[in-house]
Amino acid sequence: VQLVESGGGLVQAGGSLRLACAASGSTFSIDAMGWYRQAPGKQRELVAAIFKGNGNTNYADSVKGRFTISRVDVRNKDTMYLQMDSLKPEDTAVYYCAARRWDSGEYDYWGQGTQVTVSS
C-alpha cells in the first residue's frame, strides 16, 4: 500500500485547509485509515481515524468540532480527507496519513507527511 498526502500549506488562524491522502496498491487489506500529526519537540499524535467497515470516526479532543475526516473508495483507490476548520497556531505540525491492515493492531503504512503551518 502506498500513501501520498497533499494539501498542506500556510494559513492564518481561523482559516481552513483540506488534506488529502491517496492510497493505492493492496487497499483491500486496509480496515482503517487515520491522520497523525507531529509538532516540533512533541510526540506524534493521532488526530482522527475512520474505519472502513462501518464508517465510524474518532477524533482527538483537541480537534473535535473543527476537523472532519472522510474517505471515498473508487475502484479500490481509497482517498481520505481531513477538512480542518477554525485552525489554531497549535495545529501547526507535519500531518501524516496512515493505514492499518485488517489483521494488524497498529498502523502499518505511512505517507511522507505534509506541513501545515497556522500563523497567529
Uncertain residue ranges: none
β-strand number? 11
Count of discrete alpha- or pi-helical segments spanning 4 or more residues: 0
Structural class from helices and strands? mainly beta
Share of residues in helices: under 10%
Q: Characterize the overall form.
A: globular
Strand content: over 45%
Please summarize the sheet with the most strands: 7 strands, mixed
Taking the alpha carbons of the first and last residues, their distance comes to: 37 Å
Give the ordered list of helices and strands: EEEEEEEEEEE
> What does the radius of gyration come to?
14 Å
Mean pLDDT: 95
Quick rundown:
The protein is mainly beta and 120 residues long. It has strands spanning 2-6, 9-12, 17-24, 30-38, 45-51, 57-59, 67-74, 77-84, 93-101, 109-110, 114-119.
Task: Explain this structure.
A hairpin with a 5-residue loop joins strand 5 (45-51) and strand 6 (57-59). Helices cover 0% and strands 57% of the residues. Strands 2, 4, 5, 6, 9, 10 and 11 form a seven-stranded mixed sheet that branches. It has strands at residues 2-6, 9-12, 17-24, 30-38, 45-51, 57-59, 67-74, 77-84, 93-101, 109-110, 114-119. It has no helices and eleven strands. With 120 residues, the chain is an all-beta fold. The radius of gyration is 14 Å and the shape is globular.
Which features does this protein show?
120 residues, 57% strand, single chain, four-stranded antiparallel beta sheet, seven-stranded mixed beta sheet, mainly beta
Task: Present the secondary structure layout.
Blueprint: E1 2-6, E2 9-12, E3 17-24, E4 30-38, E5 45-51, E6 57-59, E7 67-74, E8 77-84, E9 93-101, E10 109-110, E11 114-119
Parallel strand pairs: 2-11
Antiparallel strand pairs: 1-3, 3-8, 4-5, 4-9, 5-6, 7-8, 9-10, 9-11
